[in-house]
Batch of 4 targets.
Target 1
Amino acid sequence: MRHLIRTGLASLFLLAAATTARAQEITVFAAASLTDAMTQVAQSYATATGDTLQLSFASSSTLARQIAAGAPADLYISANQKWMTWLADQDLIAANSRHDLLANALVLIAPADSNLAPITINSQTDLTKLIGDEDRIAVGDPDHVPAGIYARQALENLGQWDAIEPRLARADNVRAALALVERGEAPLGIVYATDAAIATDVKIIATFPENSHPAITYPVAITTGQANPAAVKLLAWLLGDDAGTIFAEYGFNRPATSPKTQ
């Protein structure tokens, strides 16, 4: 894998000028579900290199649109392929810099004090029977938030979307959906496994079958015009073992497939 990463980044290093000794400031736009992990990554990276990461977290769609509107991001980490491809289609992603960075899972959560027991989700599961007549299931907005898009795909594949769609509490991002369940404002929520792992006031009721939705992968790329030495160095570090250890501590896995470049 290290060989593939070195090969994929080689052209970027050729384009970049020699790195100076002066500490650099690098702006990273990252999906909201990466808030805790990337905050730790930034601290470790600053200690290791002296470079400072300026982090901006929001839904992947919001960040992609900001980049398209001219926001000065050096690196972008999306929670799905759709929004990275959307930027690539507009030539806003640097050539050969796109890689699949992380993998995640989709889970059903409830408040920690809920009397709901763990269940197995399949095509026979009726989630509406787990909530009251006036209750809602918290989820990132399926129209644009990656976690919500994955949730919709899973529910459609399980034949439940039509019944559940009117019962959703649509949040601006996955962390907002998590907060609704943490505060007890929603009896159920659909979030990433990593979000549930960092929350103290929720519990996992079930994990959605892997085959019910596309693989949850987080692509990373340098934005067009920002393939400078500092950004290239950070990208290589994110794909390496030091960052991988930190991501693993927050429940993220590396993708099963080789890194994707574009």
Note: The mean pLDDT is 91.
Target 2
Amino acid sequence: MIVVTGAAGFIASCMVTRLNLANFNDIVVVDNFSIAKKMANLEGKKIKEFVDRNDFFDWLDKNYEEVEFIFHLGARTDTSEFNYEVLNLLNLDYSKKVWNACCEYQIPLVYASSAATYGSGTLGYDDDENMIPLLQPLNPYGESKNDFDKWALEQTAKPFFWVGLKFFNVYGPNEYHKGRMGSVVMHAFNSISDSGRLTLFRSHNPDFEDGKQMRDFVYVKDVVEVMYWLMHHRKNSGIYNLGSGEARTFLDLAFNTFSAMGREINVDFKDTPEDIRDKYQYFTQANMNKLRSIGYDQPFHTLEQGVQDYVQNYLTSNAYY
């Protein structure tokens, strides 16, 4: 059996699909299944068992001998969440329990970290583990992810294979439930569909023109491909970046979305909301050399390829992966 936590969410539900496509059908999905808006992500998938996240550790104590691998992708991912108690409970304490169980039962582990750990990027975007204690995230979500990365590196007891993945700006199918926290591609598609135009955040940094803020946008199909490869690789434990390795502007993303929809480009700008303005990242780009150095050699979708696939094969028909 393979366990996927946060399984009804965006990236994790895509991971279940990737496993099913490889004929892994004994999937145990873990989540808070009372959130109905996420459940469409799991429809039609081959799943052995649904386990509520509050019951998972009791379940694992009874079934660990049958568990081959754990993908711990469940978390509170809202970057505007300022309730430290919630973040500590779900992102830090729960992850520690998963880690300790993997140590006790000798289960290999891949868990989700985040590029939000890099903060403003003044220390760069290299996944050098020596830099992790020095990072200064810009929001409590990023802090919670970095706190767990630091804790994991400090442990003397570790799973025999483990990897933390710093996801950059992931976009793609199955994020429909995320609302404000959905990708810019999804919001762009919805806005263009409704009004024929797209409004982007104005730059409040003199080093960047409006719309020229840059992000490392990575397609979710590439993310799950890397995780699938790691499940088979099972060596070179550590913390790795997972982005496309190429920063692109929000205008690039906008123009590609208009193009994929066959619509005329119509972009304007508005001020970045004040509640996130001082925590806004103007540039992110994953250094992917570390993952490449351990043998991962698959190409990543370009922004053009990813946006076209997402828009034309999923968003246009509200389809799921």
Note: The chain has a mean pLDDT of 94.
Target 3
Amino acid sequence: MISREQRTPFSEWWWTVDRLLLAAIVVLMLGGVILSLAASPPVATRIGLDSFHFFNRHVMFLLPSFIVLIGVSFLSPRQIRRSALVVFAVSVALIMATLLFGPEVKGSRRWITILGINIQASESAKPAFVVLAAWLFSESARRPEMPATSMAVGILLLLVTLLVMEPDFGQTMLILMSWGALFFIAGMRIVWVLGLAGVAAAGLFAAYLFVPHVAGRIKRFMNPASGDTFQVDTAMEAFSNGGWLGLGPGEGIAKRTLPDSHTDFVFAVGAEEFGIVLCLGILALYAFIVLRTLSRAYASEDLFARFAAAGLAILFGVQAAINMAVNLQLLPAKGMTLPFISYGGSSMVSLAYGVGMMLALTRHRPQIEVESASRASATPGYA
């Protein structure tokens, strides 16, 4: 047992971190291991790899992800701000390098290989961007004379422009939704929020008009007869085949033909083999993580911690909701991973970084520490 009287960094972390939230995240990670084992072998076999290639890599990425998650959860709000600034700057530089040197796959440049590792820099940019935007909004509330909101708009335009150039409209919409939610939480006028939504809708319409693969996906969603809907149709069949309790581990049919059964459509594979009951359990885990974080954020006296934790929770929850909605044919197909469930090294490590910051920002801290952080944050030049 860890005594409350111990004054070690670990004991202080253990008694201040939200252990229920941490437990839910660990359960989600373990569920990802099980579903990766169920969904990935047929994909690996089809492309001539060892049957457990993707599963082994999933587990391999899980260890550093967990280390990142726990390590980041030890950080103070000040350290989180500084780390987010560094991660965002590095991510933006890598996105620019990807646009210049990354390979083009299906009309997009989203990956760059460094030291033999494929990196999708937009994944790490997302949580860092949310934290920086939250800090700027909190500074705007404390010091109205500071052009913090304009700076927040500036980094939004920078990141969105780079993502559109890849192009990656799924991540772009996720960033815009998270930023808009933060904008609203920070107390900005509703007319500006509606204006942002209008700009996003206009951007989506422009993408429909001028980007062929975006137009194709939207047309297939609105009228399935207009194109190839094999993946979403197979995913829906998987839900139907699975019923409430599923066909049993390893008995799924959809994963034998679904090209992205271990990434975008792992939720459908889980439904077929383990049933709708498992899907509801996964949905409940995501809902618990988001709502628990939002409730802890609301109780925080520190504006930055409140905004950043809420923004990260919304980012996490919206990404999960988009993936599950695509599997259920409620949204057009997008390349969006299911947090901690889908295969993907960059995605998993970046999610661990974001969730680690959520845990750090929702830790119980003495009031004197919160007031000290707020005073320091109000000091000019503070980061």
Note: The two ends are 37 Å apart (CA to CA).
Target 4
Amino acid sequence: MAPSLSGTQMPPNSSSCMINDSIVSTPAATVTGTLILSAVFLLGFPGNLFVIWSILARARKQSVTTLLILNLAIADGSLMALTPFFIAYLAMMDWKMGTVMCKVLFYLCLANMYASIQLIMLMSIYRLVSVVWPQRISVITGKRTIMRVLGVMWLLVMVASIPALIYRDARLNKERNRTVCDSFHDKDPDVVLQYMLEIVLGFVVPYGVILVSYICILRRIRQTRFRRRIRSEKLILAIVVTFCLFWLPYHIINMVQVASALLPECSPKRLLLEKIWKKFRAVTSTIAFISSCANPVLYFFAGKSYIRREGLAFMARLFEGTGLDSTRKSQMNSQNSRDKDKDAEVVLQDKDSSTNSNSIIKSAKTGK
């Protein structure tokens, strides 16, 4: 028979903050999880706060890329602010904060996952437009347009995260005599719905857009004479790759759990897949959690050349540089187009002058 969804067999949670019964089941796992989350908090919380402060207080001009990075830091910083609750959960090996906090905290965690990947997708789309269609960049760089896009994105993120409020609950594990904040599914269709939503909205669609965007960008760069890898491309590509490395294992486990739910109960394949996702859910979830503290580290290494010259403002100068790269490139392309037009105009004028001169000479000869 398939494992029961109550009592001792509780499915690990499904949100992006993956502290579940398997993590707090043994002292060794508890100590390991506590140390990892503590390190993530000590690195990620002040790191994201520094990014936010750098953009708001030190950046002289906020470009589209800078605004997207600001929103990404706010999302990650908010998640880092919740980390102490999960550290306490691990330390006590018991959920003491009730059902409401269980739902709210994990709702915010799932919203962070969606917000992060959607913002990275928007960065990729912006780079695509600025490189492939630089003449249209002014259409999407208006402050009002960007604010509307970000507002719609956050609204969609909040709506997409509602399943965490529905399925998340704090229940008593009678055998171990402790309360667990977990995601409970009474039917296989609920498992498929929740995890497929995370897979499609949190990985397949955004990464499909990101992949297509960068393929078009690379093709465009190869076609132009400006083949130098600009700073903003390197930084945003590093953010994309890092996020994928941290989240891909988690979404693979989601796929495994969906596949197990679609198979007949008690079948050998289903039992094997259930064993796999239950064994690796905690590991992949912890890896995914680390992603929220990775971006400040990337920014530090990308902007370390500014530290001696700019001091605490080094990160602001870095973000200003990423914004100026696309602007300069667009201006350069526009200038080249204008230069070509001027050259063509001069050639035409020369031809006209030459034609007029020849006509005068012929007329003079005829008169003679």
Note: DSSP finds twelve helices and two strands in the chain.
